[in-house]
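Q&A log
Question type: sequence-to-structure
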Amino acid sequence: MLKISFHKYPIDIVLCVLCSIILLPMALLNGEGTLRVVLGLLFILFIPGYILVFALFPMKKTDHGIDIIERMALSFCISIAIVPLIGLTLNYTPWGIHLDTILISIFIFIMGIGAIAIYRWIKTPPEERLTITFNISLPESKGKFDKLLNIIIILFIIIAVALLVYAIVMPKTGEKFTSFYLLDSRKIAMNYPTSLTVGENTSVILGIVNHEYQTINYTIDVWLIDQTIVLNESIQENESVYNHMWFMNKITVTLNYTPADIEKRWEPQWECNHTFNITREGDFKLAFLLFTTPTENYTNNKDYKELAEEIINSAYRETHLWVTVT
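Response status: OK
Response body:
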């Protein structure tokens, strides 16, 4: 049996402070990895409560102390209460609620209460202090059944630890989506060209951001659609009627996956300055249909009104402009 005991200093408080000191620069500098995840969970869900409980009860289990099970349970519960209160307090300060301010505030709380906890532990009589002791040994087996039971227990522990490590290390897959957007020539989502003359060259900017967790071969098909809205009297709902649908252009691009990080400033992944001209007069919908698979090779300026509904419904994303051509 291996027995390790710490009587000269509060090793648990020292470890809590050390974990916080290691985590803070990693988080502020946007470090990544398993260590940041593990320390971050401890930093948020356990350490603040444990430090406070230790400051209140630096004694071992006596009439004035609490046992280790009570101490661990209180640590989680109090941490869950303390962290939101810190965030609520920051909301009424000039610094506001941000990742940096929350991390620094929790760190200051841990350091301050940790210093109080160590002071109270030192002032507590040695025979009453809470000390950490590790007893590493296997229970003695009196028969084959006991040996088998011990092996099963050890296997379950190993499997549980392995699953925990796997859950932490493996990347978390969030919502899969593609951002498909349309901007004017000044890269603003307004003042689109809507009044054109026949044959006039006009430009818009198309943009795609891949958040699909895999590389995608995108295709953008550009269509000029003569579309009217009619009332379906049988169901009393408006329906689109595609009188004409002319193919204008095809754009292909392959994009790697980029993570969606709401904490960072948004940046475009791919944008294309698309120039077009319309050789017909009338009111049209200029549709940009996005596909994640290759599309048919259509003929420019050919009318595909028979396939209009099928093509439009098969698109993964769609954006459009309503234009008047004179």
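Response note: The chain has a mean pLDDT of 83.
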